[in-house]
Design a protein that fits this description.
heterodimer, A: about 625 residues, alpha+beta, Four Helix Bundle (Hemerythrin (Met), subunit A), 3 domains, 6-stranded antiparallel sheet, 5-stranded antiparallel sheet, about 50% helix, about 15% strand, extended, B: about 120 residues, mainly alpha, 2 domains, about 65% helix
Chain lengths: ~625, ~120
């Protein structure tokens, strides 16, 4: 069947089908992006932290704007070429459009990568430190060393290098929850222990009771001790010899794990099965006991209301476990409720440092607790023996700093009615506890002087109001945020022995187009000037750390949502336009007008993608 | 709409011109945000800079819509479809205004978070 109005327009609307279709789609897109833009404004006005305005490097965004505008022009030329029946010209313009789409995504990729590699730390005093995390490695003797690059860390010959935003814990024992233990984390711990020539083995014999119908069988068919012994023997055979087990009564799904069994996930899985079976068995048993109790109580107190009978019928957990056995080992009285084991304990022999991601941790690890609890309910314990120490090893976030932001600290100080500058200067980064305090004091001294100069400059330029207040003053960002441009600026000035106010000082400032995707830690000049000073933020001072990902703050959350969705539109649009370019020669020969209509519709979508970016660029990069 | 080959031939010059205007206004947007003597309002970024930035962006978006997407001479049906979408979009942005009517008050909890003054953690009210 031929579909009407794909080439010619309908008389009533004057439009061909797909054009109405694309506009309906674009109208829904307006609402989609409208909602997200609304979300952006919402997050920004209600942010309870200083919004990172103008935080992104402008140049990639600017080039991408040019690229998209350029591609909007070329896509309209591609359509015009088809209308004029110039196939070759169409190919050229459509080709350029698709190259532009590719370029846009490459630049976006560079920008995203820079974000994912950029470390941020919020300290417990609300100072924000940004920079490039160092790499650490655990040496053969169990000591931890830090290096600037992964390469250097590898060269040092220790274990696998890790970013110094992790936690190092030396456990004597690790307890795994048999129900919640997370396989990849177990694998990772085993791998690390193996590399450090350490083993994870069970510390004592463990008996996990699953089902115990063989304690006594059923009332009608009691199981003999002989039958049960056979089952026990089968289970023990699987895990080795266990004299202790002979005195106990195993049932189906039960498990015996002798001391010294090495950890592996399969073992945890078996223990989980026993635990679940035991729990189900207990539920059944308790229900049966409860039923029995009710029967008894109803006979004893037939006239009473049920709420008066209830206290008599309830199960007392302590007495129900008191089983009595006859000479053959059959359970003759008491309950058949089994005690459940929900954690398996492993000894680390010898204790060695484990590198743990902060995202694994359930709650902050404190040295005095001697414990690290993971989100899968695994607990790493240092043990009580003195020689095992505290468990938590020095786990500073070590980084080369490319920005120091006191805006949040200043905000908090003002809320508490304190002078922001005083609070800032008493912060940890300038204290004796920071072994690099000298570098930071020097930077802050120059920064304060520069802001003083700026203050004066603004008064000279714009004057004061009738009340004597300066008409223009430095912003909070000027005052309380030391950017990477500031750090490079001050380092250059230091080299030339210049201070703010000296002639030539301002000329040393990096321009907005320097540092394509942000601070470049590999830049030779920056490296030589030692412009990005080192810092080791002690573990207990870190209140949050993250890469520049949606986790870090709501700005990056909405940035990735908006640009990610827009990027998907770019990819989708490029695929459709690419299809017209590479697979439509046949249609062009048969019905060029139809192809022109298709390209017009694809082009409309492409213009919309450009239109969204026209708003995204200023709100994310310039405001 | 330019539909005959002659009309399209003519319209191409317009497309190039619009492309150039868009380039120029992109540079203007960046200049307004980065060049000190083009800084409107207070020193540094403020609401005036935001308004100017958004006015320029809206102007650029209008050009893209009107010329590249041919909305300057489109059929009634399309305006009808689009007006509905745009009104909905504006209503979504309107949620921000309505949020100011939110009866929940935040003041005390921020004031009394007691980070620097632990004794202030207790709400004085």
């Amino acid at each position: 069947m031929e579909i009407p109005y794909t080439v010619t327009a309908r008389k009533d609307t004057g439009l061909f089908n797909s054009k109405v279709g694309i506009w309906l789609f674009l109208a829904s897109e307006v609402m989609l992006f409208g909602g997200l833009f609304s979300g952006y404004v919402f997050l920004r006005i209600y942010a309870d932290y200083p919004w990172p305005e103008r935080a992104l490097p402008i140049v990639p965004g600017l080039i991408n704007t040019f690229v998209l505008i350029g591609s909007s022009v070329t896509v309209v030329f591609a359509w015009a070429s088809l209308k004029m029946r110039q196939w070759r010209r169409f190919q050229v313009f459509m080709g350029i459009t698709i190259v532009c789409a590719g370029l846009f995504m490459v630049l976006k990729g560079i920008e995203y990568k820079a974000k994912w590699e950029h470390q941020a730390v919020r300290m417990d005093d609300f100072a924000i430190i940004e920079g490039h995390a160092h790499y650490g490695t655990v040496m053969a003797n169990g000591e931890v060393d830090h290096f600037h690059t992964k390469k250097e860390a590898k060269k040092a010959g220790g274990g696998k290098p890790f970013k110094t935003n992790k936690i190092l814990f030396r456990p004597a024992t690790i307890d795994f929850s048999v129900v919640r233990a997370h396989e990849p984390w177990i694998t990772e711990m085993l791998e690390q222990a193996g590399k450090r020539k350490s083993k994870l083995v069970t510390s004592g014999d463990v008996f996990l009771y699953g089902h115990i119908e063989d304690y006594a069988g059923t009332e009608g068919e009691p199981l003999s001790g002989k039958d049960r012994s056979k089952r026990e023997t089968d289970i023990v055979k699987e895990f080795g010899k266990a004299e202790e087990s002979l005195a106990r009564k195993f049932g189906e799904n039960s498990l015996y794990i002798p001391a010294g069994t090495p950890l592996d996930y399969e073992l945890i899985k078996k223990a989980r099965k026993a635990y679940i079976a035991g729990r189900a068995h207990n539920a059944e048993t308790r229900t049966a006991i409860l039923k029995e109790n009710w029967k008894r109580v109803k006979e004893k107190l037939p006239e009473q209301e049920y709420w008066k009978q209830a206290p008599e019928a309830k199960i007392d957990a302590a007495t129900q476990l008191n089983e009595q056995f006859d000479g053959q080992g059959n359970c003759v009285s008491g309950s058949k409720v089994v005690s459940l084991i929900s954690t398996l304990s492993f000894r680390m022999d010898p204790p060695q440092p484990l590198v743990i991601k902060r995202s694994w941790i359930k709650r902050p690890v404190k040295a005095k607790d001697g414990k690290a609890e993971l989100r899968d309910d695994t607990t790493l314990s240092a043990g009580e023996e003195q020689d095992q120490g505290t468990g938590l090893l020095a786990s500073p976030v070590a980084l080369s700093v490319d920005a120091i932001d006191f805006r949040w600290m200043a905000q908090k100080a003002e809320e508490a009615g304190k002078e922001p500058m005083e609070v800032i200067e008493q912060s940890w980064i300038f204290s004796k506890d920071n072994k690099h305090q000298g570098d930071y004091k020097q930077i802050w001294k120059v920064h304060k002087k520069r802001i003083g100069e700026l203050e004066q400059e603004l008064v000279e330029k714009y004057g004061k109001d009738p009340e004597g207040k300066p008409k223009r003053v430095p912003t909070e960002t000027d005052r309380y945020r030391v950017t990477w441009q500031d750090l490079v600026h001050y380092a250059r000035a230091k080299q030339d022995s210049l201070m703010p106010g000296d002639s030539g000082f301002d000329d040393l400032r990096p321009k907005f187009w320097d540092g394509f995707a942000g601070p470049n830690h590999k830049d030779e000049e920056i490296h030589k000037l030692h412009a990005f000073p080192e810092l080791e933020v002690p573990h207990h001072k870190v209140s949050m750390q993250s890469m520049f990902t949606p986790k870090w703050n709501t700005y990056y959350a909405i940035y990735f949502t908006l640009t990610g969705l827009h990027g998907l539109h770019v990819i989708g649009g490029a695929i459709v336009l690419g299809y017209f370019l590479f697979f439509s020669k046949g249609l062009y020969r048969r019905n060029p007008e139809w192809l022109a209509n298709r390209v017009e519709v694809g082009g409309l979508f492409w213009h919309f993608v450009d239109l969204v970016w026209i708003f995204l660029f200023p709100i994310l990069y310039l405001m | 709409m330019a539909d005959t080959p002659e009309e399209i031939q003519k319209a191409q010059k317009k497309y190039i011109l619009i492309g150039l205007i868009l380039f120029v206004f992109t540079v203007v947007t960046v200049a307004v945000a980065t060049v000190p003597w083009l800084d409107f309002g207070e020193h540094g970024f403020d609401s005036k800079d935001a308004i100017i930035g958004l006015i320029i962006a809206s102007f650029k978006a209008t050009l893209v819509g009107a010329i590249f997407m041919h909305l300057n001479h489109e059929k009634k049906t399309i305006y009808g479809v689009l007006v509905l979408g745009v009104l909905m979009g504006i209503a979504l942005l309107g949620l921000i205004w309505w949020s100011f009517e939110d009866p929940i008050e935040y003041g005390d909890s921020v004031e009394g978070d007691g980070f620097f003054n632990p004794e202030e953690t207790v709400n004085q009210d």
